[in-house]
Amino acid sequence: MKIVRTLLPCAALLAFANAANAADAVILPPADIPAPPAVSAPSGWNGGYAGATVGYAFSGDSKVTSGNASGKHDEKGLIGGVFAGWNWQSGNFVYGVEGDVGIGRQSENVRNGKKKWALDTASVRPRIGYAVTDNVLLYGTAGGAVQPRSYDDGAGNSDTKVMLGWTAGAGADVKLTKRTFAKLEYRYTDFGKEKFDIGGIPVTNTTRQHKMLVGFGISF
Questions:
Q1: pTM for the full predicted model
Q2: What does the H/E/C string look like for the chain?
Q3: Which domains does the chain possess?
Q4: How far apart are CA 110 and CA 106, in angstroms?
Q5: 136-152 and 201-219 beta bridge pairing
Q6: How far is CA 95 from CA 41, 51, 193, in A?
Q7: What's the rounded mean pLDDT across residues 104-131?
Q8: Residue 176 predicted with pLDDT over 50
Q9: How many CB atoms lie within 10 A of CB 161?
């Protein structure tokens, strides 16, 4: 009986201690599960830009017809130019307008004499593209083009016309730094037919041209 009387107070004391600990315990709510990070659309193509290009014209020609005689002037060769434009961006889609002016070597004699450097093509074109990443923009472009062209017969008779046509192509802009980018572009240009009057002799010119361009630009 002494053992029982001794154990009962001990058991009561332990029960009281457990109850006090339970009263003091703080129950914490479950930790919040963090939401997945939001994935934003690529950005950074908004605003103006300008730059320069070099390239090569190929698989093109100017066909010159005078009466029953005709000949072709090869339009291939090195070309260069400058460009400028403005982009607007909505999500991944980028749209804007761009203009460019290029120079190349042209044969100005109806009999296909020596070539000389001259204004090749100037164009104004809408562009629409898709930003694959923050650093890569793929685009297509099409618009109007002009080309001043002169012909002479080697005897002092000449005529100059501004040929009107269209141009279309596709390319990619790739950022090198936050404000600089490289450009790769293919373009096809068609100036249709234009009539020249050289010393009273009518001459018809038909010009088509393919070109590949690489360039460097700065955004601002």
A1: 0.75
A2: CHHHHHHHHHHHHHHHHHHHHHHHCCCCCCCCCCCCCCCCCCCCCCEEEEEEEEEEEEEEEEEEEECCEEEEEECCEEEEEEEEEEEEEECCEEEEEEEEEEEEEEECECCCCCEEEEEEEEEEEEEEEEECCCCEEEEEEEEEEEEEEEEECCCCCEEEEEEEEEEEEEEEEEECCCCEEEEEEEEEEEEEEEEEEECCEEEEEEEEEEEEEEEEEEEC
A3: 47-219 (2.40.160.20)
A4: 11
A5: unpaired
A6: 15, 18, 32
A7: 82
A8: yes
A9: 15
Query: Which residue from 170, 172, 182, 171 is spatially nearest to 218, judged by alpha carbons?
Result: 182
Q: What does the pLDDT read at residue 86?
A: 98
pLDDT band at 94 (very low <50, low <70, confident <90, very high): very high
Taking alpha carbons only, the member of 124, 154, 120, 125 closest to residue 141 is: 125
- Specify the amino acid at residue 111: R
pLDDT recorded at residue 107: 66
Q: Which two tokens stand for residue 72?
A: 């072709």
How many CA atoms within 13 Å lie on the side-chain side of 175?
16
**How confident is the model over 148-172, as a mean pLDDT?**
88
d(CA 151, CA 133): 48
Q: Write the single-letter amino acid at 145.
A: A
Q: How confident is the model at residue 115 (pLDDT cuts 50, 70, 90)?
A: confident
Segment 16-58, tens digit of pLDDT: 445 445 445 455 555 566 666 554 445 589 999 999 999 998 8
